[in-house]
Structure formats: structure tokens, C-alpha cells
Amino acid sequence: MSDDDSQLTNNNGGSASGAGSVGNHTTQNSGKGDEEQQQFQFVCKIDNARILHNILSALAYKKDGQMATLSISANGLKFTVEESNSFQGNAFLQQELFQEYHFSSKHEQFKINFSLLLDCLNIYGSGASFVSLQIGYRGYGHPLLLLLEQGGATTHCGLSTLDSEQLNNFNFRGHNIVNKVIMEAPFLKEAFDELDWSSTNATITLSPNDFRLSTAGASGSCQVDYPHDSEVFESFECKSHQTNTYKLALLSPAIKALSIAQKTQMRLNEIGLLSFQHMIENEDKNISFVDFFVAPLEEDMNDNED
Amino acid sequence: MECTLSTGYTKLFAKTVQCLGKIGEDMFIEAHQDRIILRTLNSSRVAFFAFHLHRGFFDHLSLEDNQERKFAIKLKPCQAVFRAYDTIEKCILRLDLIQERFVFELHCKHGVKKLYKLTYEEIQPVSAVYDKDSCPNRLVCVPRKLLEAVSNFHSSVEEITLSTGKTHLRFRSHSEDTTAGRATQLLRTETTLDAADFDEYQVGETDITFCLKEFKALLGFCESAGQPVVVHFDRAGRPALASLTYFNIFEADFVLATLLDPNRRSTPDANSSPSSSPQTSNTSLIKTPHTNTSSMPSRKRASPDSSPTRGPSPTRSSPTRSSPTRSGPSSPSVIITSGSGGDTEGEDEMDYETIPLSPARG
After folding, report:
1. What is the pLDDT, as a whole number, of residue B14?
2. CA 20 to 30 Å from A208, out of A159, A299, B177, B345?
3. B-interface mutation test, from A194, A198, A223, A234, most B Cβ less than 10 A away
4. B300 CB near a chain A CB, below 8 Å?
5. Where is this region: Disordered (chain A) (predicted)?
6. Are residues A130 and A275 in the same domain?
């Protein structure tokens, strides 16, 4: 759990997670003998740790103690954050992003302290450039190891891994996607900035004619309308009129990425589940995606066709 | 009431709202046939800003049944309305009596339409009666000069003293009196401006002390309006005035209370009750709100069940010029009047002279 300079090899068993996982990892390793000899199941390298930090910070909505689930596959890394079964955010770090990417297993999934991970990635400060990063993972029950280097100074970090819980499957595509718009992120950010954040809920209306965002609070109400033919939309494909209400507390982490994204796709399926897909252009001109699902408030689920 | 801002003046209006927002919590709006007046008073009632927007400021200005309207809205949500003023192409302000909301309708770039409906309160607005011409000291200069001078002060400085002389004037941070139980300031700042820096410099030797934050706010506004600022003042204890005119369609008056006597200032937390002693004549401007409760306008909420009377309240027409007589024989050049009633007097910081009340003029 520390971001100090303890050696990679000293950091495994002790900081490993839940009791169950520790037991498991010993049996797993018993045949292979010494801990230090054990092969890394997963190793990746990236020349610029800031790229990772930039993408992942789009998922951070708590100051500290935020947990995330990391899924490793041959295609890349996926970080998932969830809140109260109504909110999910995913960041994909496709393997092309990395200069080296080796994964010998099929699929690994575990939970880590996301806030600490971000702190580790940013250990040389946000102004530091050319921080190279290696990530290693020996397997179930082992910590996730980070090795950061800048100008000859290295930092070893070990983040203990926890058993992951079942992630929510929002099954967004399980229902017809009725409304879809693509906007330049700054325009959408401006729309959300207008909202009265002291309100609890925000209402999003998508119809063939316009896109409307509104809030109502003690001091009054606020409403922003974008006509369908406005140039802020790169594409506007809305088939039916939908009005849904969402908790602002869940919307706000989902739109945080608007400040770093280039474009955002906003979609609504027929049960009112809202999806944002933010396109982020990295410093190395690679494109990454961060997406979010936000469930509507119950009472609107039934009458969203009005 | 409904009005449409002239496109060219949207920015000036946005700056007005931002400036008001730096001072007070409520914006008092008075809609007349030929103009709209926006006012605010800060919480300690030592700063009062009023903006007169004449008909030329608007593309369109109309009153329902030619009925003048007086009401107040909260400034905080208003500031949010004009945060992105550079995208606004058309701005309509409307008092919706049916929904009982004050509506900002903004037509912005890219066809975006924004609609803000804010609750309002029907209220007799605060007002000040002042006579600039009775102030013996007068300065005219570009706001930038003064802004540069006061920008030297650290933001923790609450009050500054302006000392004027024949050839130059000096701003210095006002030091706390040690008898007030507070340590003297570690940092003192002093900056001097030459009389030649001013377009007009007609002053005697005077020391006045007033609040810095509000002074900066008004200078910032004047700077963005791009017009020279005229400063009028008398002597310690009398309010200082700044004013700005924008092509006869826009006038702004800023009133800042000044400390009565820097050396005999009471502690900020000593909540001296105005009822304890009648103010002497030299403390003129000064708060004697208790004397005026009889003329206090009633405060009405615009709520559906209270069915507020919107006609002129009996106090509205009471002559404001009568106020000076309440505060003593030497009639002050400025009186800040408040519709909020004498019950707020306890909140006033006693650093400054307060301000007798009278209903809004106009």
C-alpha cells in the first residue's frame, strides 16, 4: 500500500489482501518455490506515466479511499468504478498505449485502492515529464507493483490487491438505443456548468427537436436548450422524446472527464439508462475512451415516453 | 415588466451583476417606465452600489399596466446566469407574475437557449440619498490608476486610508488599534499618487478610511466600463462616493462608509446598540435605524397564498429628503436607506458609522 521505495520483492505477501486470497496464493506458488523467482503474469511499460494518470483521473471522484476494479486482458487494462448500483465508470487502456505489454493468463480481475494508484502515478508531481512506468503483477493474491522512474530516480510502489466483487452489468445494449448525440466536449461542459449544482437532481431531455438540460432548486430553476440543428452537435440521432431525471451526485463524476475529453457521445436507451462516452486524445496522439453509465431515478422509468 | 438588453450592452450588464455580486446578497430591482435601477447593500451596510440603466440601454422596456415594480432577487444565482456572458447574443429579463419568477431568457451562440427562473421577493428596495455636489473634495481619473495603486495591498487588508494633500494623495493600509485587542498589522503598505495623475484634482487635506474589497470591486467595474471614475468625499465619518457615467444611458453610484475616527474606533465585535445613545451630529451618516422604524416599509414575500399587494406601499412616497433631519442638524451628504427594517441593526459592525434609513426615492 505504500508509495515509498521498498523493493518490489519485499512487498508481496505482506501487503496482499484478504485472508482468502493469501491462502490461495501460497498454494498457487508452492510449486514454484522462491517468491522472487516467480514469473510475472503481467508486465507492461509505458514511457509517459502522465498519459495514464490523465485518463484515470477522469474516473476519480473521491479525494481518497476510492476503490476501483482492474481487469487485465490481452487487449489491455480496464478500470471500473461503481457507485450504489446506479453508476459505473470504465476507463480502457488498450495495449497499444503501452510500449511493452505481456500477459500470460487469460483474464485477471481484482480491486485496488484507486486513489493511492493515482497518487503513485503522480509521485513526481504533475509537472514532471518523461516519467516512465512499469507495472507488474505476479498473480492472484500478489500486490500490483509499480516502478516509476524519472531521470535516474526510481520509485517502487506496491498496491495490495483485493478480491473483486461481481461488477454490475448495465447491459446498455440490451435495450434499444433510441437517442444518441455526439458533441464537442467543451460545449457539453458549458451546458452542465450552467446547472444549479445545489439541486439534487437534473433532468435530461432528448427529443428529435432538441436536447434540454434542466435543474430546479430552492432559488429557482435553470434550463438550457440546444436545438437539434445547432452546430455544437457533431451528430444528432434522436428517434423519440425522452425525459429522465438523474441524481446530480451521480452525473457529476460522469461529466468530470469533459474537461479533458475532445468529444463526447451521449446515449439513452429505451429504459432511460444514460451513457457517456468520452474520447480523450493523449499526449502521444493515441485515443482512449472513458465511459460512464448512469441509471435514471425510478419514478421516471415508467413515463419516459411521454 | 419585460426588457431586452441591447446587444452591445450585454457585457456591461454582466459586469454590473458581477460587481453587485461582490458586494451584497440581494439585488434590489426597481423597474420604472424610463429606467431600471439595480442596487445592493453589503451585509455590514458600509457599502452601497446603485446602477441606473436608462431606456437607451435597452432595445425594449415595458411595464405591465405601467405599474412600477420593486423587488429583490438573490445575486448568487444571478451571477451564474452571466458567467459565460461572451456567448450571449440576446438577453431578455422578464418578471413573470403568474409563475412568480424573475426570468432571464438568454439566446446564445449556436442556437443555445438558456432559461433561468429565479424566485423573487417584493420588497421596498434599499436606497441611498446623496448629493455629490455637497462634497468638497473631488477627483477624476481613469480607474486603472487607482486600481494599480490599490492592487498593491494584500488581500488580507480590510481597510485602507486615503490621505489627500495639495500635490499628492496617499493610500495606506489602515492599522488596527491595539486597544481593540488585536495585534497591529505586521505588514503596512503605503502608495502615493501624484496629483498630476488625475484628470481633475480638487481636494483639501483629509484622511478617510474605507473598506478595500468593495473599493476594488467598484474600480474593477469602472475599469471594465472604460470610463473615468469620479470620486467625491468629505471627511472622516462622511461617506465617500464614486460615480461613473456611460454615455447618458448608464450611471453607477458607489457609496462607501468611512470610519468616523480611526483612533477612537470601537472593537469590531462590540455590538454597540444604536439605541444606547443618539448619534451625535458629526457621526451623521451613520446608523440610526431605530429612529426610522415607523417609516419602515413592510417586506412582502411573493408567495401564492400571501397575495401580496403590489400597489405602492404607503411609505413609498414618504419624502426621502426628510431623513437627514433625523440624524442631526448637520445634514449628511449621503444617507443609505434600507427597506429591510430596523431589526437588522444588531448585525452591523460598529467599525463604521451607520446609516439612517429612509424609503427608496424614485
Report:
1. 93
2. A299
3. A194
4. no
5. 1-34
6. no
- Long-range CB contact pairs, B289-292, < 8 A, 24+: B289/B338, B289/B341, B289/B342, B289/B344, B289/B345, B289/B354, B289/B355, B289/B356, B289/B357, B290/B342, B290/B345, B291/B326, B291/B356, B292/B323, B292/B326, B292/B342, B292/B356, B292/B357, B292/B358
Give all domains of chain B, ordered by start, each with its CATH number: 1-260+298-306 (3.70.10.10), 266-297+307-347 (no CATH)
Residue A217 is part of which domain span?
172-300
How far is residue A237's CA from residue A178's CA, in Å, rounded to a whole number?
A: 8
Minimal CA–CA distance to B348: which of B287, B279, B290? B287
* Cβ of residue A299 closer than 8 Å to a chain B Cβ: no
Residue A250: phi and psi, rounded to 5, are: -90, -30
As a whole-number percent, the residues of chain A with pLDDT over 90 amount to: 34
Verify that A14 and A153 share a domain, yes or no: yes
CB contact under 8 A, A231 and B117: no
The interface predicted TM-score of the complex, written ipTM, equals: 0.71
Highest mean pLDDT among B12-21, B182-191, B255-264, B335-344: B12-21
Task: Identify which of B110, B114, B117 has the shortest CB distance to residue A220.
Answer: B117
Q: Count of CB contacts below 8 A, A vs B?
A: 61
Report helix, strand or coil for A85: coil
CATH of the domain at A292: 3.70.10.10
Average pLDDT over residues B65-69: 85
Test mutation, A187, A221, A226, A234, chain B, max B CBs within 10 A: A221
Mutation for testing the B interface, residue in A223, A231, A234 having most B CBs under 10 Å: A223
Distance of residue B101 Cα from the nearest chain A Cα, in angstroms: 8
B264 touches chain A (CB under 8 A): no
d(CA A222, nearest CA chain B) in Å: 4
d(CA A290, CA A261): 9
- Residue B28's pLDDT band, with cuts at 50, 70 and 90, is very high
N residues, chain B: 362
What is the DSSP pairing of strand B206-211 with strand B229-233?
unpaired
Instruction: Give how far A112 is from chain B: nearest CA, Å.
Output: 39
In chain A, how many domains are there? Answer: 2
Distance CA A281, CA B254 (A): 49
Which residue in chain B is spatially nearest to A216 when comparing CA positions?
A: B117
